[in-house]
Here is the input.
Amino acid sequence: MKPSLLAVGLSALVLVSACSGGAHARATATHGTTTKPSAPPSQAQTPTSPDRLPNPLQSPLPVGTKTLYTGSGHGAGGVTLPASAGKASSITVRWTCAGPSKFDIVATGKPLAGSQCGDGSGVFTAEIPHAHMRELAWQFSAADSVIWRIVVTQPPVAGPQ
Here is the structure.
């Protein structure tokens, strides 16, 4: 049986750039781009604990990338990033979540990135530019019924040329 155009379309990579005004009901990034691969709904089962969610790092990180935070949980949470994050050109956040509502990353009351969770099959990515790294204390906003896994990384520092 040939896959239908709808099934092929659902498995395509969705790229959203909220800074350029793009929006998608399942993914948003306030200060960067967010990506989420989708799977046909019949193939996914919603996990019930964070350790059953897919690893947000789906491919090896470039050499020299520094992992600033790795965590998981449910509902609200947060992290204070190290001082080196404030000096980086950008910070990359990768997360996955499952539940009936949204997962948002907020600093000083301003949204940095977020997504609608759903069945937990997607992995979201947002790049937070240096201009938006004034505050290193981030809050994760989510309903108690939402489970999540998140990884925050800093790109390799470019050396003298």
